[in-house]
Design brief:
CATH topology: Alkaline Phosphatase, subunit A
Helix content: 25-40%
Radius of gyration: 22 Å
Number of strands: 21
CATH architecture: 3-Layer(aba) Sandwich
CATH superfamily: Alkaline Phosphatase, subunit A
Strand content: 15-25%
Shape: globular
Length: about 450
Amino acid sequence: MWKSVLAILFFVSSFATSIISAADRPNVVLIMADDFGYECLSSNGSLDYKTPHLDQLAAEGVRFEHFHAQPICTPTRVKLMTGLSNKRNYIRFGRLARDQKTFGHIFKDAGYKTCIAGKWQLGNEADAPQHFGFEESLLWQHTRGRSDQGFDTRYPNPRLERNGKQIDYEDGEFSSNLFSDFLNDFITQNKEKPFFAYYPMALTHCPFCPTPDSEDWDPKSHGSKDYKGDPQYFADMVGYVDKTVSKIDDNLKKLGIQENTLLIFIGDNGTDTPIVTNTTFGKIAGAKGSMKDGGNRVPCIVSWPGHIQAGKVVQNIADLSDIIPTICEATGIELPSEIPFDGVGFLPTLKGETSPHREAIYMWYARNGGTKAEIFTRNSEYKLYSTGEFYHVEQDRLEKNDLSADKLSADIKAVKKMLQAKLDEFAKVEYLGETAEKGPPANKKNSKNKVTDK
């Protein structure tokens, strides 16, 4: 009898513990601004833009000096969502192979509620977001393209898809408000449950246009007819990014769940080429699409009050593939053992602990897939291309002085040897995606899945 009673007590105790542990699991909010380079934040030295809320998050949380994305949109989304180098699973622009496992799957399988809002650009099947693990979705450039009757459809009065159903907005709406409201509603509805909310912003991608805070905002506009728009509005768009992040963070505070929510803000690639920014370290020209520093060095700010070291500035290098192992470690989710993740989790770094960290990152980039890729490895100071070019990028960001033919000190030779070993290691990496998905680029003329956004 006593054994039965003890067994019941043990079961009840275990059940109660599991409920408590599930309720205490931290939430994750991941926000990624589009075409938003390192220099866009005033906390990173910008003199042209005001980002007070992001600066405050950086001051109270952790800011990375050397965080790297891919040079353009789709390659970044694929790498971020799967935790794998593009060499392993990138097909072509505008596409994510449907056999790939994303962080949406990982968190949904772990019992988290999952949501995505913002820019999709990963396949136009109506079920694509749900197929990749997101229970709720409000997206632009999902089941249809970026333009309608010659107007860009992403900002004023946008053309969106909610859970695969097309919605046309006509009452002066601005997409960033729609996306953030959708995410905040999701967060509010799931405040008692662990949730994963992913917001790949439309801002600040061109066309550069007025926001609702601009003096010449036109609520009747249906978007720009010029793909690039007017660069004079870029500062307003950066300001609206900051305002939108503040809106989401304020909601976490209002709900009393900010301390139980890991919030990460990153950029998806460098700033677009028409933009020139004055900074404390000189003028920075946008270099989106480039393998140089300005094309892939982006902001990374992490906020998790009470759990990470406040005001920390990280000098170690990190990249997109590090996000999945980091958020999984923070939430106690075990990484799927069958996937050869390329990232190194940086949670100990966030907490101020002394621990091993990655020596270098590896970048493989081919806009439309295939085998002709640009490749480099680098640490926070030096970069080595697969072609043999070698640069001290910390002092030569535009890569004008190739050191490959120079006499190098023993210390620098050791760095170059380490970087070469990384190139050699990834030279053996094989493609893991669906071979059937390989084919003509998605933006090729007459493609049924035409994607023209860059």
